[in-house]
Structures are given as structure tokens and as C-alpha cells.
Design goal:
alpha+beta, five-stranded mixed β-sheet, two-stranded antiparallel sheet, 2 helices
Length: 196
Amino acid sequence: MLKLLPSDHPRHPVGPPAARQAGVSLIIVLIMLVIIGLTSAAAMRNATSGQKVTNNIRLQNLAQQYAEAALRHCEAEMLKADADRVGTLAEANITTTPVGTADAATGWGQAASWTGAGGIAATKTTLPEARVKSLDSSFRPSRLPECVVERQGLADGSLAYVITARGFSPGYTADGVSGVTTAGSVVWLQSTVLLD
């Protein structure tokens, strides 16, 4: 008869089977929690990015609407008789710019025209606050829309008036000297009016 020595007995793992599984389960659960946490963080980052993009589009659209309001206001003023126009758009204030002038040399292309320090600043007209309507104050522009007008002599001898308008978003700010936008949104629109 063959006798088994203690060293010949099959070896059994130390401890009960449930204790071994709990250790592996804990590691798997921790790995799953890390994966879920990273996925949640990425989803929240995407959601906030989307919200920022949507808000920027909304601000741009508001600035566009204000620029359109200023452009329509100045066009309507220019269609009136000189004596009936708002004072800034009187013929005496409007300067003539040659046709084909580069944008930087035109009146509207100079920062001084918008900051009030020169150029065609005499024609700078601000849209009356009563014409800016909004039930919610968060949609009102931080700066009222404005326009400038300059005259251009055409090849056939007639005169055209170039009207340039700017609309600003809520939260818009600019450098006081250079006029460069520092925050918010600004939209520029332009039209040409031929008067008979």
C-alpha cells in the first residue's frame, strides 16, 4: 500500500473561495468606476462647449439685428429732406470720399470716425434708445448701435451716400483709443443710397 506523504497532498489555496473573489471584484469595480467617471467628465465638457458655442451664436445674431436697426434708421434719415434729418446727418457734416478708395482710407474704415476723434465722426449717429426694444435687459446691447455716412461722387456725376452701421452684443467692450473689440461681438453692415 502506498502511503502519501504530506508533501504529496494536492495543495489547496489558502483561505475560503469567497475571500479570493471579493479581491478581484473590488479591482474590477474600481476600474469600472474610473471609466464611468472619465466618460462623465468628457460628456460634461462637451455639453459646456456646446452651450458656449450656442451663446456666442446668440450674441452674434443680436449684434446683427442691432446693426440692421441702425442701418435702417440712418437710411430713413437720409431719405428725408436735409432740414428734417437728425443734426449729425445734415449735408454740412457729410464729407466726400472718392470712389475706389481703399477701405482703410474711407471714413468708415478709420477708427477715429467711430471714437469721435476725427474722420467722418461728425456724422456718427447713435440709434435712439427708444428704438432698441427688448423685454429682457440681458438682451440689450451694452452700447447702442451707430452709423456713419459719407458721400461718394460716381462716374456719371451723381452722388451716392455710403451708410455704415455697427451693432453690438450685450457684454461688448472696446479699447477707447483704438476702437479694437476686447469682448463681445460687433457686426458691421453697409448700404449705398442714391438720392434724386
